Amino acid sequence: MKVLITGGTGYIGSHTTAAVLRREHEVRLMVRDPSRVSAALEPLGVDPSKLEILTGDVTDARSVAAAVDGVDAVMHLAQIFSMDSRDFRKIRRINIPGTQNMLDAALRSGADPIIYGSSTAALLPSKVPLSTDLPLHKANWTTPPYFAAQAAAERIARRHQDEGAPLTIVNLVGVLGPHDPHMGDQLTRLRNAVLGRLRFPPQGGFTISDVRDTAAMLAETLTPGLGPRRYIPAGHYLPTHVYIRAIEDAIGRRLGVVHPPARAAMVLCKAVDVVQHVVPWHIPAEYTAAFMCYCDARLSDTMPTAPLGVEARPLAETIEDSIRWLYEQGLLTASQAGIREPALLA
């Protein structure tokens, strides 16, 4: 099967590209910057010469039409995920029209299956257990722009599903694990926690999946003829104190954090988002993150156990592998990462 993947140089996209290739599919990548392909995929054992690479942008209908021409399946993962308030305009500009363009073009091309990487943010907040059957979130003044954009984009996808399109929606959760080509929000937050910069993570919690498990599940969706489907990857619900304790166990020391109520954190972080626009550095206290902790606190552990046969690996393994990767990239010292270097043992 020949598969078009968008977002293939991103965190989830690069791991998914590697997983799809391991299942002996052909891969065509549509990327905005071909120079990023090698750095994103070679560390995962992918030879870029084995890929067909097209330059294009999901917001450009002409390049999207060229990208879907001649492929059997389409996997749309080119989404901007960021909790930084400075990125919200970019999220609106790319996530919604990009999804519209890709899904419309994929349907016209006759691709089957079509996989769309949405987010559980489109389903939250909810007072009932997390599931793909939840109605999409209706935005109001409290809704973070990322949540609102994801709900709007998935609304497009669900309309196609209601018409019987062979479209699979995967509501992705936050991911951790080694090798993020762009050092995004989740690994940055983990690094900040290890460095003692995340002093006041709010009460509540969030859902997390190992990026390798998410990629493996996405690769398993490439079966034609099954019609509309929806999935959530296997993972873990993490109360914030459990997340911090898992980090402490991995690095072998206590971080001394305080967990304020999520509602109070939301008020403070809303003000921080405003300040963020006038300072040149990133402040690790985002309203979107606090809102997510508040929403997920009401869900408990409702993550699926093994969708499409892909189980979640142990949380400790994900945290430890993530921290070791940060160390290997020079983003943490051995002491900070809790790693005893052989040279120091001699």
Q: What this model shows, in words?
A:
The chain is 42% helix and 14% strand. By secondary structure, it is α/β, with parallel strands linked by helices. A seven-stranded parallel β-sheet has the order 3-2-1-4-5-6-9, with helices on both faces. Strands 7-8-10 form a three-stranded mixed β-sheet. Strand 5 (114-119), helix 5 and strand 6 form a beta-alpha-beta unit. Helix 1 packs across helix 7 (211-220), helix 4 runs parallel beside helix 5 and helix 9 runs antiparallel to helix 10 (287-296). It is globular.
Give a quick summary of the entry.
The protein has 13 helices and ten strands.
Write the layout of secondary structure elements.
Elements: E1 2-6, H1 11-22, E2 26-31, H2 37-41, E3 52-55, H3 61-68, E4 73-76, H4 88-109, E5 114-119, H5 145-162, E6 167-172, E7 174-176, H6 185-194, E8 205-210, H7 211-220, E9 229-231, E10 236-239, H8 240-251, H9 262-276, H10 287-296, H11 315-328, H12 334-337, H13 342-345
Parallel strand pairs: 1-2, 1-4, 2-3, 4-5, 5-6, 6-9, 7-8
Antiparallel strand pairs: 8-10
Label the structural class.
alpha/beta
Number of helices: 13
- Give the strand tally: 10
Low-confidence stretches: none
Radius of gyration: 20 Å
Strand content: 5-15%
Helix content: 40-55%
The H/E string reads: EHEHEHEHEHEEHEHEEHHHHHH
Across the major sheet, the strand order is 3-2-1-4-5-6-9
Overall average residue pLDDT: 90
Shape verdict: globular
Note the gap between the termini: 52 Å
The largest sheet is: 7 strands, parallel
